[in-house]
Amino acid sequence: MQVMFVDDESRVLSGIERALMIFDAEWECRFANSGHEALEMLNEVPADVVVSDMRMPFMDGAELLTQVRNRWPGTIRIILSGYSEPDATLRMLDVAHRFVSKPCDSTVLLTMVSSALALRDMFQDPAVVNIVGRISRLPAAPKVFNEVCRLIADPGSDTRQIAEVLGSDPALSAKIMQLANSAYFSRGHHIHDIGNAITHLGLEQVKLLVLASNIFSEAGTDPYIDQLQRRALLASTLAARISGHLGVESTAALLAHIALLIPEMREPEYAATKTRGNTPLYAAVGAYLLALWGLPMDIVEAVADHAHPALLTDNKFGVTGTVHIAVALANNVVPDADYLEHTGVLHQLPAWQEMLAHTQENLDE
């Protein structure tokens, strides 16, 4: 594996190099003191991962990673930053998969690089890697986006109202949760739902992200985006009712079809495609995207496995089973009856179907 570290401070690179000696990773590591030097080296041999400092002269980390994304979309992009001006945060959010606060323990950083590479190995199909590598943003449903902007501009609105609307849209939720779960903000805690993500980031930070950036402003005009959002909200609400709480199940159900926000994923040649692991390509792309964005692995795994839970060796119904049922019913797909019988919950299907009807009525009110 090719890993590149970029920082204009030689002592930082020296610290990483020392940590590598005891980390015992089978990587070929290269070090660059500037963005221009990094690009020259990448032209010779592309990298699997590029880790760059944000604040560098002449070419900062966001500009470097923008060029990396455009020229080598399959490269995993990680950025280090010691300051949190809103403009810098927005630029990082637009091009980096992971964010790390600086100063950072070198061992912690190397562990993150290792986990990112392991995630790519899980979804190693070239089609998945290249599709995901090009994605920095996804379109929000126009009605939801406009309502979020209205609430944020209204001084009388509160965190609960904003969280409820943000949490109804897959694209908005995923991006907020990417930032909340980053090492830049999370301080090691995993955030599993949008309400906790907003509380963790702070309402002012969320307002700045939504109002001051164009990350969310490209709200889709395609009617499919609105339809997908409504089905995702129905699945998420149903998953919360089945599990009895807001958390992993409801978030994974909301994000289960997030890859279908990418137009090419809806093309006929991709619609029925499966990965080498027999996972539907849309599920693998969605899971890999969320994994790269640093969302908790239990959410990632449920998104990856929800379409075919019978492939799991675990005989428990659990999170993936809940997401499978909620997403299938919300999208008028017949659930896997053999799987439900095998896990001992088939008798509950009529109750869940009735629950779906009630949930649909409540959302339509």
From TrEMBL:
Secretion signal, residue range per the UniProt entry: none
SUPFAM superfamilies for the chain: CheY-like (SSF52172), HD-domain/PDEase-like (SSF109604)
Pfam families according to UniProt: HDOD (PF08668), Response_reg (PF00072)
Keyword Phosphoprotein: yes
Superkingdom of the source species: Bacteria
Keyword Phosphoprotein listed: yes
Keywords: Phosphoprotein
Domain HDOD residue range list: 138-309
UniProt cross-references to CDD domains, sorted A to Z: REC_HupR-like
Residues modified to 4-aspartylphosphate: 53
Gene3D superfamilies in the cross-refs: 3.40.50.2300, Hypothetical protein af1432
Domain Response regulatory residue range list: 2-117
Protein name in UniProt: HDOD domain-containing protein
Organism taxonomic ancestry: Bacteria, Pseudomonadati, Pseudomonadota, Gammaproteobacteria, Enterobacterales
